[in-house]
Amino acid sequence: MAHGEVLEFEEYVRTRQDALLRSARRLVPDPVDAQDLLQTALVRTYGRWDGIADKRLADAYLRRVMINTRTEWWRARKLEEVPTEQLPDASIDDSTEQHADRALLMDIMKVLAPKQRSVVVLRHWEQMSTEETAAALGMSAGTVKSTLHRALARLREELESRDYAERGARALEPSKERERCAA
Fold first, then answer.
1. In the predicted model, what is the mean pLDDT of the chain?
2. Distances 124 to 12, 35, 85, 140 between C-alpha atoms, Å
3. Residue 52: which of 16, 1, 15 has the closest Cα?
4. Is the separation of the CB atoms in 41 and 66 below 8 Å?
5. Which of 36, 37, 66, 75 lies at 20 to 30 Å from 21 by C-alpha?
6. 129 vs 106, 132, 155, CA distance in Å?
7. 107 near 155, Cβ under 8 Å?
8. If DSSP codes are grouped into helix, strand and coil, which group holds residue 154?
């Protein structure tokens, strides 16, 4: 790679790293994994930087590399999880409602398949159009729409089941009124 292209890549990374890290953070729930994902994607993109004819499309190219890398990691993971009947309660450290909602959303996003998660992230967080999402993921616009529809339906189901389970658990707790009467 020519010295000028190296400088161009360095400038690109310097100006876009925060936005790219946000994209990576939305693809993987762990902040450290998000940094690793971005770093891996940048290394892979650096080797092909001179092949990107239109540098205005570098963000889309890099997001695609991040999605492909995350998918590779997901496929290579060791399944040490044990399926259970009931999902564990999500622990939320931050008491503000906005952070609680975000934590809940990130937690339920884990139930989605990688393809569905990618579509949801690009369409709703990155606010890409259906066509842009289709181009970034290498699929048709119709596939993006149907995948998004199924993913959102799955997220709704998960939210409803958690809400139902939470209400059921509260109903089983003895009320303070009954405790006072028994005393």
1. 82
2. 25, 21, 30, 18
3. 1
4. yes
5. 75
6. 22, 5, 20
7. no
8. helix
CA 28/CA 35 separation, integer angstroms: 10
Which of 19, 63, 70 minimizes the C-alpha distance to 42? 63
Distances in whole angstroms, Cα of residue 154 to Cα of each of 12, 28, 104, 134: 37, 18, 14, 20
Residues in the chain: 183
User: What's the rounded mean pLDDT across residues 61-81?
Assistant: 83
Between CA 106 and CA 120 the distance in angstroms is 12
Summarize pLDDT for 89-106 with one digit per residue, the tens: 766 554 566 666 777 778
Q: Which residue has the tokens 């259970």?
A: 84
Distance CA 140, CA 142 (A): 5
Q: At what angle do helices 58-76 and 31-48 cross, to 10 degrees?
A: 120
| Average pLDDT of span 58-85 | 82
How far is it, in rounded angstroms, from Cα 109 to Cα 9?
Answer: 32
Q: CB atoms < 10 A from the CB of 147, how many?
A: 22
| Contacting residues for 128 by C-beta, under 8 A, at least 6 apart | 122, 136
